[in-house]
Amino acid sequence: MSAMSAMSAVSAVSAVSAVRPRLVLASASQARLRLLQGAGLAPSVVVSGAGEGAPSGLTTVEVVGVIAARKVAAVVAQCPESLVVGCDSLLDVDGVGQGKPASARAAVELWRSLRGRSATLCTGHCLVDTRTGASANGVATTVVRFGTPTDDEISAYVATGEPLAVAGGFTIEGFGAPFVEGIDGDPGNVLGLSLPLLRSMLASVGVAITDLWAARPS
User: Pick from 119, 126, 124, 142: which is nearest to 188 by CA?
Assistant: First the structure.
């Protein structure tokens, strides 16, 4: 490649970088941040602080969608020229959305009720392009098949503190992983963000997820 060609290539890359929108994650979730970073993205984090209550009478799927949109709405004014994504997760158990257990006792009771059963992890996603005002919304669902931990194992798990920090009182990447027999659906969704759904939502507002890669595969 000639020196002139090399300079042109560098200029082209610089031009693309210059117009790449900033991706903003409206969430304090480290699991969501790790998922995005692992997919080659480099989001900024702007914690929304939005309340997680929702009107009564809504299904779990509707609730997570409402709260995800609320999280994004709380930060868009702070994020010009950005793609803002917000998420909210609940575990649907017999039609009731379970968030973070309110206490260790509640976590123990939840786990005892889940033994040997399946439940559905629902994550609402909201995306707003503050450059254009375009938006997209979606909910991803993943069926989680729980094992049969003993009472002693449940007590030990709750004592780690992990169940109190995550929706549904469990995660598949920590101490709780041995107590989940399997999942049917997107594993990332169980951690709080569905990358396939995010890709589709980005495409619907005219953005290719590959254009947001901060680090490209070699």
Answer: 142
Q: What percent of the chain has pLDDT over 70?
A: 89
Quickly list DSSP for 41-107.
---EE----------TT--HHHHHHHHHHHHHHTTGGG-TTEEEEEEEEEEEETTEEE-S-SSHHHH
Residue pair 207/129 in contact by the 8 Å Cβ criterion: yes
Distance CA 45, CA 24 (A): 6
* pLDDT tens sequence across 105-132: 999 999 999 999 999 999 999 999 999 9
Q: How many CB atoms lie within 10 A of CB 130?
A: 21
Q: In this structure, are residues 71 and 53 in contact, taking their beta carbons and an 8 Å threshold? A: no
What are the φ/ψ torsions at residue 190 (nearest 5 degrees)?
Answer: -65, -25
- Domain 22-212 - what CATH class? alpha beta
- Indicate if 184 belongs to the active site: no
Catalytic: which of 88, 92, 129, 186? Answer: 88
pTM (2 d.p.): 0.88
Dmax of the chain from CA atoms?
70
pLDDT digits (tens, 9 = 90+) for 147-164: 999 999 999 999 999 999
Secondary-structure percent of the chain, ordered helix, strand, coil, rounded to 5 = 40, 25, 35
Q: Where are the domains of the chain?
A: 22-212
